[in-house]
UniProtKB/TrEMBL annotation:
It comes from Xiphorhynchus elegans. It holds the Pfam family DUF4577. The chain crosses the membrane at residues 65-88. It comes from the Eukaryota. PANTHER family: LEUCINE-RICH SINGLE-PASS MEMBRANE PROTEIN 1. This is LSME1 protein. Keywords: Membrane, Transmembrane, Transmembrane helix. InterPro entries: DUF4577.
């Protein structure tokens, strides 16, 4: 009769060990994600002496993870906006430069024409270089 009771007690001890390991891993994960808030929730859990799952600590961990996610999204959005702004500014500058180059090309072509006319006139008048 005692033998079955020992077999029943051993799995219970094993299950408590599993719960302890899972709680330890959860606490370690909370410390890695958000050290300050997790430490606060761990202190509360130690003060209460509760061996079950602490809902406030879990909510704090989820809250910290959510805030981290939102901050990451905001920073990503700011960086993308900045890159788009730089692309637009670069395109505007390139348009200005290309329009200046076209106007300078027209001026150079006009100067070449004037130079050719002057050379023809000088050649006809008999004055040579």
């Amino acid at each position: 009769m005692e033998r079955p009771s020992l077999e029943i007690n051993l799995p219970d001890i094993h299950e408590e060990g599993k719960l302890y390991v899972v709680d330890s891993l959860n606490n370690l994960n909370k410390l890695n994600v958000c050290a300050d808030e997790s430490q606060h929730s761990l202190d509360e859990e130690e003060n209460t002496g509760d061996t079950g799952e602490n809902m406030a600590g879990s909510n704090t961990g989820n809250h910290c993870l959510f805030i981290t996610f939102i901050l990451t999204l905001i920073i990503s959005l700011a960086l993308v906006s900045f890159v788009i702004f730089l692309i637009i500014q670069t395109r505007n500058k390139m348009d200005q430069i290309s329009s200046r180059l076209l106007s300078e090309k027209k001026n150079i072509d006009e100067l070449k024409k004037i130079n050719n006319i002057l050379l023809k006139h000088l050649n006809h008048s008999g004055i040579k270089d």
